[in-house]
Amino acid sequence: MALIRFEDVGHFYQADKPVIQHLDLSVTEGEFLVLIGPSGCGKTTILKMMNGLIQPSSGRIFVKGKEIREWDSIELKRKMGYVIQQIGLFPHMSIEKNIVYSLDIQKSTAEVKRLRARELINLVGLDESYLVKYPKELSGGQKQRIGIARALAADPEIILMDEPLGAVDQITRKVLQDEILRLYKTLRKTVVMVTHDIEEAIKLGTRIIVLRDGEIMQAGGRDEIVFKSKAGFVTDFIGNKGFLSYLNITEIGNYITIPANDVQKNPLKENVRLCVRSNEKLIVGIRMCLEYGVTRVCVQDEKGDKIGQFELSSLSKLAF
């Protein structure tokens, strides 16, 4: 089911300079859709049009089958959590009050708000002691977690995220990416995210849309975007970084080349140095092969039992 649908949508800030052109786009229930492209390509404009912050200059947008202009603006925004790069926490409010701000607007009871704040602070990986603190007492990564918790407070069907991790350092960014992925798999919300980071898009997106000048240049899953990118702009934009990102996020267990009952025939089976866990990433197996001058390493499950092997030659099967 398409929760959000754009039909021939265009938007102009200046009459002769379209930001969005003839855009047809559907957001399917339960997917994690990532919009990526260079600065000024219209990513944030598309996101803001989804929850009515910006009205299209032409075309139509539907949310849950209802044309967006027919929605009550407050009701529409309640169905969508919004996470932004600047986070926008209220400095004079405690973390608890920041989290349940949308529930205040809905006039929820004090007990409902108290329980929801405690549920969400734990959900985003912080303990309840943070609820009495104020934004100035938190790190950038902690503030971003609170921003996510606040977006989830009213239990919206759709989560919109506009460069949510752009202002945090690289180490914190990777941790928060894992948290966002965990929350997505736990809550099964529909997520639309804007990013300029190729690795982030490949890691998080179940579907990725590459934009340029307000037009969709290519849409597809990570395999299609990385290995079957359209010649020209998309290939140039994704480039080698897309391939390296794929190696950094794909588990080696997806590329086991022999069945478990043949593992004992593996001449490497006694050499524990040349074994890798199945949940490690492809890049780990490749690095190990190059370091030891071999073409294959054994693969173990979480208990340490050998379940197969990874061979460098298996890379020829990537995305095919």
User: Which regions contain 5 or more consecutive residues with pLDDT less than 50?
Assistant: 266-272
Radius of gyration: 23 Å
Helix content: 25-40%
Number of domains: 3
CATH topology of the largest domain: Rossmann fold
Number of strands: 13
End-to-end CA span: 28 Å
Description of the molecule:
- This protein is an alpha/beta fold.
- The protein folds into three domains: 1-79 and 165-249, Rossmann fold (3-Layer(aba) Sandwich); 84-155, no CATH class; 252-317, CBS-domain (Roll).
- 34% of the residues lie in helices and 25% in strands.
- The chain contains eleven helices and 13 strands.
- The protein has helices at residues 43-50, 73-78, 95-99, 101-105, 110-123, 140-152, 170-187, 198-204, 222-227, 233-249, 282-292; strands at 2-14, 17-28, 32-36, 58-63, 66-67, 80-84, 158-162, 190-195, 207-212, 215-220, 275-277, 296-300, 306-311.
- The strands form three sheets. It has a six-stranded mixed β-sheet, with helices on both faces. Strands 2-1-4-5 form a four-stranded antiparallel β-sheet, with helices on one face.
- A hairpin with a 2-residue loop joins strand 9 and strand 10.
- Helix 5 (110-123) packs across helix 6 and helix 8 crosses helix 10 (233-249).
- Mean pLDDT is 88; it is low at 266-272.
